[in-house]
């Protein structure tokens, strides 16, 4: 059980909030098995992703007291395989001092190996967290620093906070990394309403100098949040690197995550594409606020995003993280594009044993069940499939089927429109807006073959096309008896390869 020392004012606020809450029925049928969720209460953005002493550290936006947004603090968990997590006490709690309430908003964490900040020593380098402090009473957002001398378990606030203050209400989500060529720390932070990313530099993590602004560009209908800038290999060639800037944009037309490909010289990011070009990270209605582990083994960049809960509410937790995704860039006919594949450390852990396997199955205008009692009937599985054919309209999988497929979520490929899709029309009308019932991503076959990966985990559904060229992520809420699974075709399709792993038994 997590125990936190509360101030008197915080205790009173917590008691009032608890009395006002309406209890939500427990929903174990929607608790994911191989995606991260906190044991209890609310989570949203991942923060401070750091690989340290052989462990992946995940800090995350967390309400330690309630199963709804509020009392923002940094929760903390660690993992050696990105599948099994050890939950730790809250790392940076909300601050309440007299009449000032300061919530701990999103940010990043770094290991200050050379002790540039002076917060530790060369023998015991500090972990430094850089985050947005939301001063509720003042309606201001400022950038704060906190540091840890015990490996990131507990943090002390820097006595001279804030380190950046523009006297703005919306100015948030700093993401910091070390840029070796100029021997300085680089910060990207969102100028929210201006649709800009401001870039700062610092030698010591405490004193920051403005370097440049990027934007507006791309999608600007919603406010910008959670920017991050990182180098990625092109076509798996370590000698060729380009920079990718990630930006989240939530609001009426969201959530949406976009990216820009270009160059960074330690001062300015230059976009390779036209200013109005929008490149999507994920085409679904749930993936948001993603940032990457920059320091994972083998220099891999592993992206983790928040999968936003819709309706209904889950309990005793709310919110979960996406599958961790390894990032790279690939040359396509349209230019350089982001590739996202489930992290190899995850697939090695989850898919180590062979799953059910079939090959060269011809299916013509029918649906074929893939589940049986005790097999693939728990809404937690992983599908890798390759489809080949020229005469079909649609093909794919019916997941979370109920009553002979009267209710189902349809995942597949539309060969006529050349789109990867998730269709929730028959199952999620009460949970999604009309515009999100059908989610699509443009995608062309490669040599006549379409590759589809389906990651179903109780309530999250991530569909990956053509080896990571396109991704659609969404949340669904199947009835307890909606556990059917089948492959379907509209026309004749050869299933070149079909692998299924039952992860309900993991």
Topology at a glance:
Blueprint: H1 8-20, E1 41-52, E2 55-62, E3 73-79, E4 86-92, E5 95-97, E6 100-111, E7 127-135, E8 140-148, E9 156-157, E10 164-168, E11 171-179, E12 184-191, E13 196-202, E14 209-214, E15 224-234, E16 237-249, E17 256-264, E18 269-271, E19 287-296, E20 300-307, E21 317-318, E22 320-321, E23 325-332, E24 335-342, H2 344-350, E25 356-364, E26 367-369, E27 380-388, E28 394-402, E29 407-414, E30 419-423, E31 438-442, E32 449-457, E33 460-465, E34 470-475, E35 484-490, E36 492-502
Parallel strand pairs: 1-21
Antiparallel strand pairs: 1-2, 2-3, 3-4, 5-6, 6-7, 7-8, 8-9, 8-10, 11-12, 12-13, 13-14, 15-16, 16-17, 17-18, 19-20, 20-22, 20-23, 23-24, 25-36, 26-35, 27-32, 27-36, 28-29, 28-35, 29-30, 30-31, 32-33, 33-34
